[in-house]
Amino acid sequence: MKKNYLFVVAVVGFLFLVSCQNIVDPAPGSCGQSGFDVVVSSTTPASGCNTGDGEVKVVSTGGDGAVTFKLENGIFQASGTFSGLNAGFYSITAREASGCEVVIQVALTSVTGVNITNITSMDSGCGTSTGSITVTASGSGALQYKLGAGGTYGPGSSITGLASGVYTVFVRDGTGCELSATTQVRTGMPFATIKNIMNKSCAISGCHVAGNIKNTVDLTVDQNIVDYAASIKLKTGNGTMPKPPKPKLTAQEIESIACWVDDGARIN
Length: 268
Fold this sequence. Notes:
By secondary structure, the protein is α+β, with helices and mostly antiparallel strands. It has helices at 2-18, 191-201, 222-227, 229-237, 251-262, and strands at 37-44, 54-61, 68-71, 81-85, 88-95, 101-108, 115-122, 131-138, 144-147, 158-162, 165-172, 178-185. Helix 2 (191-201) crosses helix 5 and helix 4 runs antiparallel to helix 5 (251-262).
């Protein structure tokens, strides 16, 4: 009887394990829990249009271990100083040792020429194209704007009808001086929607809850949903999470998860 009892437990345990697609990836750093942030300490304006003599300095606060910095799509470096810059609107990323990142936008002006002082975006919605971008700029004479290097210049500082994604906007003044700035149009998918999906289909008995299976991520914890967002998107997208016999997610639920992750997986 004792051997039979142990055999039954093993069988039940096996069925329990295969009833749920478990996320057991190595735990990433818990972003947002170390007070990690980055701020601008100083800027030196460029002297004119495309003179390449501007500078931005940023410093980090909080965080774990050594912090590195990068400008736009460049490579990470130990210093938070970036020189030899034209006027423009720049994205600077700071990364702490655990891999968590903070991104800020910095407006670097010029003494003469075009200045982009702000760029804002409105959400597009998930799977729709109702987003927009608005640029605030100054320069000599009438300003013109275009979306992307292949776009056509026009007088409107607001560009509408955009799907979610990363866009570059160009501004040109009456002297021909041109600057560009990059921004992201998000879908605006709220974290509350993703939390509800997790609670309904994944953070349930027999799956991702505390004390359930060794090394299984507890998806009742908001920060865990954020930290494992990429895995959740991948596994819900390919149909392996939740695993049968758990009910499948609807196409809309899968799209909602993908939109939220693509937005940056934020607790918004």
